[in-house]
Every structure is written in structure tokens, then in C-alpha cells.
Write a structure and sequence with these properties.
There is one protein chain. With 283 residues, this protein is an alpha+beta fold. The chain contains 8 helices and 18 strands. It has helices at residues 3-12, 15-27, 32-45, 63-67, 112-115, 120-124, 167-172, 176-179; strands spanning 83-84, 89-96, 101-105, 108-111, 130-135, 143-145, 150-158, 182-189, 193-200, 207-210, 214-215, 225-228, 235-236, 241-246, 250-255, 261-262, 271-272, 277-280. The strands form 4 sheets. Strands 2, 5, 7, 8, 9, 12, 13, 15 and 17 form a 9-stranded antiparallel beta sheet that branches. Strand 3 and strand 4 (108-111) form a beta hairpin. The longest helix is centred in the first third of the chain and has 14 residues, at 32-45. The radius of gyration is 18 Å and the shape is globular.
């Protein structure tokens, strides 16, 4: 199937219904069907179960339990650098924010205001800053961790579409990451300033969850929701788990101007792993 046809299908598929159906299947518990589905998935996507804290596929009560499986202790050492990669996945794009524009793919850009659900005041703080867009494929570990230490100040649920976020769709659907459903998590760091982690939903992504809230979007609505944590003492350390995808997707990070210089080994489409060096503060 050509890339063009794959993109066109994204516009006509009943994405919301497919996602609801997939969520029900993934959440079903205690059946042989679940175990068979997990075995098929492991074989189809070459999932490395030797890294899992529990390698026995029969032990998972639901597909979601398997998909958000923990890793063995010590399997992802956290590098002694300012910023570490927060996920297992691949680099979609990264670099400088051009005024307030973020590169999606060749020929496609979107704005920080669009990404952040229309919050122009928040977006303005990342003008000429830096961004990193990381894609999690089906085979990857699907828990998200902190790139650096941060205190949570706010979370925003932004309703949207449910296009796939794979590389083909990213090249073919304009404003993809600013159109899809997403959860915006805002942090402050005494050493690294303000930064944002945006969890982007996609087709058949059952839901997104954070460690401080749980599942953020159990019932999808067309309304933006905001949680203020300014007066709460929710501080997460570098490398600590902050959330997870119930089926795969993308995380986008925004940093203020002059905060991060990305690792010299980083390049688009490069595979990355949790805990690897992502960058350092400029001298």
C-alpha cells in the first residue's frame, strides 16, 4: 500500500470507534483470548520480553497490563547528564523552535500555541526555545519518565482527533500533533526552568495516564480540562516514571530558550532508549 493511500485512509476510518473498541479489548481481563492476543503481539512486533520484570505472558491479566509492563531493575541505567531520554522509541524531530513554529516533517510545521491547546501565554515562554518529538512504536516499553527533575504545576487535557502518529502519517497529515487528543504536563525546575511534556494520543490509543492522576481521559469529551497543581508538592526526579500510554503514541517536550543543547549523536529516525543522554545545559 502506498504512503499516500495510508494517509487517505486516516481521514475515512472511524478512528473514534476503533479506539473505543480497542480500549475495551485491551482492558478485558482474565481470558485465554487475552493471552493469545499477547502471544500474537509479541511475535508480530518482536517484543523483547527478556527485558520485562515478568517475562511470562500468561501472568498478565489484561493486554493493558502487558502493554504497560515494567522493566527489570537496572535495565535502563540513568545517565549522569543534565537531560536524559524519557522513553524507549525513535526520534521524529528535534531542534530549535523557529520563533513559535515546530517542525513536524518536511513541509509541515505547527505552532506551540496550537500544540498547547491555545494557551498563548504558556506558548510564549518557549519562543525560540527547543523541542524534541519522540515516537513510541508498538514494540517499545510504554512508560514515560522524566528527562530531568521537575515540579508539576499544571495539567491540561486537550480534546482532538485520533490520527495515527507513525512516521508516514506525520509526513502526510498537516498539524498532526496539534490536531490529535493530548495531555499537556507543565513542570518547573530550579536548575532547568520551565518545561512541558505533551502526551499525544492516536488511533487505538486506549487512554493516557499519569502517576499523580491515573487515567486522564477515561471518557472522551469535546471539552478542555485543566488541573492546577501549583500548591501541591508533586516533584519527580530525573528518570522517575511520570506516565504511560495504554497503546502507543508520541511525547513532545518543550524547553525554554538557552536551556538545552541536544546530544551530538541525536538525529531524526535514530532509535533511543530511556536513560540515555539527551542533552546538557549550554556552557
Amino acid at each position: 500500500m502506498s504512503d499516500r493511500l495510508k494517509v487517505l485512509l486516516q481521514y475515512v476510518l472511524p478512528k473514534q470507534r476503533l479506539t473505543v473498541f480497542a480500549g475495551r479489548i485491551a482492558g478485558a481481563r482474565g481470558s485465554m483470548v487475552t493471552t493469545r492476543l499477547i502471544r500474537w503481539f509479541v511475535g508480530r512486533y518482536a517484543v523483547d520480553m527478556s527485558e520485562a520484570a515478568d517475562a511470562d505472558v500468561r501472568s498478565y491479566g489484561s493486554f493493558n497490563d502487558f502493554f504497560t509492563r515494567a522493566l527489570k531493575a537496572g535495565s535502563r541505567p540513568i545517565a549522569d547528564v543534565d537531560f536524559v531520554c524519557p522513553v524507549d522509541g525513535a526520534i521524529s524531530q528535534f531542534g530549535l523552535i523557529d520563533d513559535h513554529h515546530i517542525l513536524q516533517a518536511k513541509g509541515h510545521r505547527f505552532t506551540t500555541t496550537q500544540l498547547l491547546g491555545g494557551d498563548a501565554a504558556l506558548a510564549a515562554q518557549f519562543r525560540h526555545g527547543s523541542f524534541a518529538n519522540l515516537y513510541l512504536s508498538p514494540k517499545d516499553y510504554h512508560r514515560l519518565h522524566m528527562p530531568c527533575e521537575g515540579k508539576l504545576t499544571r495539567m491540561i487535557y486537550v480534546p482532538g482527533k485520533l490520527f495515527s502518529v507513525n512516521p508516514v502519517t506525520a509526513r502526510g497529515v498537516p498539524n498532526l500533533f496539534a490536531r490529535n487528543e493530548r495531555v499537556v504536563c507543565t513542570f518547573t525546575s530550579g536548575e532547568h526552568g520551565l518545561f512541558v511534556m505533551v502526551l499525544v494520543g492516536a488511533t487505538i490509543v486506549g487512554s493516557m495516564a499519569t502517576v499523580w492522576h491515573g487515567v486522564v481521559n477515561p471518557k472522551r469529551t469535546n471539552e478542555t480540562s485543566i488541573w492546577d497543581y501549583t500548591n501541591d508538592d508533586i516533584v519527580l526526579e530525573k528518570g522517575e516514571e511520570m506516565g504511560r500510554f495504554l497503546l502507543g503514541s508520541t511525547v513532545i517536550m518543550l524547553f525554554e530558550q538557552g536551556t538545552i543543547a541536544f546530544d551530538e549523536d541525536w538525529e531524526p529516525e535514530r532509535k533511543v532508549r530511556l536513560g540515555e543522554p539527551m542533552g546538557h545545559r549550554p556552557a
